[in-house]
Amino acid sequence: MKTKLVQLLVENQGKYSSGEALSQSLGVSRTAVWKQIDILKKNGYQIDSAPKKGYKLIKRPNGIQEYDLDLFLQTKRFGQKVTYHASVPTTQSVAHKLAENGASEGHVVLADEQTSGRGRLGRSWHSAFGTSISMSLILRPLLEPQQIPQLTLVAAVALTRAIEKVTKLEVDIKWPNDILINGKKIVGILTEMHSEPGLAKVVILGIGINVNQSALELTQDDRNQATSLSIEAGMEINRAKLVAQILYELEWLYDLYVENGFSELKVMWEARSISIRKRLKAQTINGTIIGTSKGISPEGALLIEDDAGVEHLLYSADIDQ
Ligand code: BTN
């Protein structure tokens, strides 16, 4: 009930919600609503209670709205414009629409919950209310469409740096762009673009992070393969601080990449990757390859030598390792 109550208050932020309306939406008594509000206040929520009007959320702890980010933001462009939604089908579609309407590079879309989050390779992505980070960053790089996979690797480097700085945890990159702690997934990255011949016009960089979910909150399917930063760190993580650090690392690494090319970023990616010089199994659209990874090519493709000594360059695949 607590999460649902917070969600209703956030969706109606700045306005009063009557005790009666809240009790009906939650299917509990008005006294139960009042008791929960009291608990929220004791936990740092600023909620105005007014007779006859109801409850109005002023500010909550660990939020990811513009004013939460402002406390930590150290960037010049990334995150200077923020579009926030309490709940949205997917931040990717919101960002695509904003970009179509001329939104500038660095504009970021954040949501506390996604109801139809998208993952790589047509999969879905689950983002629970209030405990995860779902963000989509609008980029307008002067790059060719075939360079965009490199940009995803740049994002993976930025994310590992940001997570390590904020949580002090050690994280690994699994090619192409999964971020893992002790073999369990913590971050997913999805890059989508609108291109024209020779130019990747708009790139929407989607990032999903398991931040403060408890083991119980991770969906049944995910529990064995995924974890959250708070489970690993043993403490609650400040989401706004993490988002701000991600935007900071992304901004400087993206600028470095656009100006100087991929070579410096390739070295940084390889230093954090667990996908090189390893035996692994790659599922590709053309079948399964088992062999040893030799590293990544200058374009960011994974080079695997199979057991017959044949080399394969993979641009897209699912890796078991
Ligand atoms: C993956 O499959 O690993 C990529 C997952 C990407 C999820 C993020 S959450 C924010 C953005 N909105 C989405 O619908 N997907 C991306």
Automatic annotation (TrEMBL):
Alphabetical GO biological process terms: protein lipoylation; regulation of DNA-templated transcription
First-tier enzyme category under EC: ligase
DNA-binding region, residues: 19-38
SUPFAM superfamilies associated with the record: Class II aaRS and biotin synthetases (SSF55681), Winged helix' DNA-binding domain (SSF46785)
Domain of life: Bacteria
Gene Ontology cellular component list: cytoplasm
Domain annotation BPL/LPL catalytic: ranges: 70-258
Keywords assigned by UniProt, alphabetized: ATP-binding, Biotin, DNA-binding, Ligase, Nucleotide-binding, Repressor, Transcription, Transcription regulation
Catalysed reactions, semicolon-separated: biotin + L-lysyl-[protein] + ATP = N(6)-biotinyl-L-lysyl-[protein] + AMP + diphosphate + H(+)
Function of the molecule: Acts both as a biotin--[acetyl-CoA-carboxylase] ligase and a repressor.
Protein family (similarity comment): Belongs to the biotin--protein ligase family.
Protein name as it appears in the record: Bifunctional ligase/repressor BirA
